[in-house]
Give the backbone structure.
Amino acid sequence: MATLGWQDRPLLSAISAQSMLRIESFAPQHLSNLAWSFAKIGLKDLPLLDCLADASVGSIDKADRQGLANTAWAFAALNVLNPPLMDAIRVQVQLKILEFTSQHVATTAWAFAKLVYANARVMDAIALAFWRLLGEFDTQGVVNILWAVAKLLVEDNPLVDALSAAASDLMAQMSPVDLSNLSWAFATLQCFDEPLLSRITGFAVEKLPQFGS
């Protein structure tokens, strides 16, 4: 259902009610999958999310990289900040960052930035992962991390320079939304790299017919 973006309210209400009754028996993967599914279809079921958060905190040390990234993304996508949950995820991200792929890193960075809830340690961990996986990030990944760095006002010039270079290399593949987010990030970071900004402008003009479509 979530992958198809399909909503059947009575069915989803039944799933929510039964899940809350049995939440203590759910494994970490089941918790993250359920959160991801409801976020994917944009259903903000606060009672269920509260139960998921409480249960996830209790078993977060057993969650794998996918579960951590999916849970963080789900709550961020629904714009629901649960500090105990995000604190628990933050600790596990720092402990398990070397296991993360480029997709997990980008997703987690975006989630913390979307909720404006991060500290220097988790952003340092994300920066470390970026350097380790340099060259493996796709367009969305680079834009998401750069957007997160700007949103959280992270002061790391080498990281911003490396992200800028990666963005420049991938710019031809970017969508209008990517270019808009990129422009916002550079403006927020007060980046005045004229060649880079001219390159963004050029691609934006080229893809102008796609804006708003």
Notes: The first helix runs from residue 9 to 22. Residues 1-118 form one domain. The mean pLDDT is 91.
